[in-house]
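User: structure tokens for Type II secretion system protein GspF domain-containing protein, please.
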Amino acid sequence: MARFSYTGKDKSGTSQKGFVEATNLNLAAALLHEQGSFIINLKEVKKKGPVLTFLSGGVSANEIINFTRQLSTMITAGLTLVEGLSILSKQNTKPSLHKMIVDIRDEVQGGSSFAKSLEKYPRLFSKIYIALVKAGEASGKLDVILIRLSETLEKSRGFKSRIKGAFMYPIIVVIGMVAVSVVVMVVVVPRMTGLYKDFGVTLPLPTRILITLSDGLIRWGWLLGIILVLLIVFYGRFSKTRMGRTIITNIILSLPIIGPLIKESILVEITRTLAILIDGGVPILTALQIARDATTNIRYQDAFTEATRQVEKGFPLSDPFLDTDLFPPILSQMVAVGEQTGKLGDSLMKLSVFFESESEVAVKSLTTLIEPLIMVVLGLGVGFLVIAVLLPIYSLTSKF
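Assistant: Done. Predicted tokens:
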């Protein structure tokens, strides 16, 4: 996408100058001619540096949802796709978003399909999004597809934020506890140790343990730091291998409460993805492949790869879901009902609602369990520190 400056005259002979964005010089000239401008000079403007581009900000998920909803409204009202994109490009002044919309508009105006133009932005538009747009263009129901997409994206964002929120609280508390403990060990305890030595106080066991831990952290902290970095590097590389991903996934899914919650959240996304793809007219095999790519969990990816093979051989979709413990029996049962009645999309959407409600229960269970557990651990840690610090002071004051 390039930016061009131009000078020219309109039909009445009035001078004009300004900027236009297009993929190339010829398309920029064509856009100006369509607006009724007679071009005198047209040249490309150099792009902003990386710092300015970074400061202008990226396109958020919320902006993509609004873009989808607004575009669907305009198409439903009778505007063409190019007209809708042109209006949106004028309404959105944020540089990164404006540039994206103008680029997509120019691609479509140049003869490219809407789905093809979206493929240039894989980080903003998922394979699910693009596949549905492609199906909408083929069926002539792009406005309906875009409305459904905006609703699905909003539901998905809300669900993911609730799941992240459930994990964020304990993570923040644990990080805070570790940070405070390190500060106490490295800063506070050494000062208290010097004070105790000056007064010749006999130190109780909790204080001796605390001082030993503090000395060890100060003396060997650099080694612990190196080990931690090496472990992080090893985990990063190990998790990229197939064996590593499988082992890590099996461990996570076997954890109590957390494992079932992750399973439920994956099932929500998978069933919702399949439902909207099938209802949108995407072929079942393509829908299975896209659903497979929609999850990063290797065990579920393998399960969907096998399901795709079975369906290719002529087996019903409900059969492969019975051959693994990753899917509950209700999934296979509901899929079988959907296949028999010809309402597979409806059955899958009902399943996604069911799994979402189950995950909400799992989130509440996790929160209910973790909050008191954190309070107990925090209380024990604070209690130990208080006892270790105050006992020598109490012994010292009792001598006077």
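User: Anything notable?

Assistant: The beta strands are 2-9, 15-22, 38-45.
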